[in-house]
Amino acid sequence: MPTSAALDVVAKNLNLKFFEVPTGWKFFGNLMDAGLCSVCGEESFGTGSDHIREKDGIWAVLAWLSILAHKNKENLGGEKLVSVEDIVRQHWTTYGRHYYTRYDYENVDAGAAKELMAYLVKLQSSLPEVNEIVKGTRSDVSKVVNADEFEYKDPVDGSISKHQGIRYLFEDGSRLVFRLSGTGSEGATIRLYIEQYEKDPSKTGRDSQDALAPLVEVALKLSKMQEFTGRTAPTVIT
Fold this sequence. Notes:
Blueprint: H1 6-13, H2 25-33, E1 39-41, E2 47-49, H3 57-71, H4 84-95, E3 97-108, H5 110-123, H6 127-137, E4 144-149, E5 152-153, E6 160-161, E7 166-170, E8 175-184, E9 187-198, H7 208-223, H8 225-229, E10 236-237
Antiparallel strand pairs: 1-2, 3-9, 3-10, 4-7, 5-6, 7-8, 8-9
Helix pairs in contact: 6-7
């Protein structure tokens, strides 16, 4: 679920069945064993297929090489071969670009982290209040049209996984996702996923952090990150 929604856009456009699952490869395994899924991936770049129940870097490299071979099959004698960058830019032209980043706040006081997450859940009950905060922070950010706590019902065994991430979904296809992990004695990690969807071809070549800056500002204001955690910056940005 925290992975970029670029896959969702492509799958819907091509009328392909796709599944949005919680973090954890066991969910992929269930789908693969049932013959419902053949390709899977996660936001930290792990990718695999149904030949193995785990991420496979070699497979990912071979998959990209096969894509490049297919794109260049009529052009092997040409002066310039189609590159990965060419393919990605064509994707942006066709489907739009999903600017994406993840902020990790590590070793946060567990109590403060839980309070932050509880606050975000409570805030979801009033979208007018949410949008008042959004517009008061950045007028150039789209409005929030839905907010929930992600829940997944496994289509194979019927099991239900609750509390899998707090989501704020924007009218233009952008998203904010908050997840909490590792609430042990050494503190918790808050993961903030920020995704800005851009359909305008003239704006798909921007630097990611520049394009995401308004939504980052909204995310930090909406969550009261500094107030709850005392942190002025994330531990890691990816």
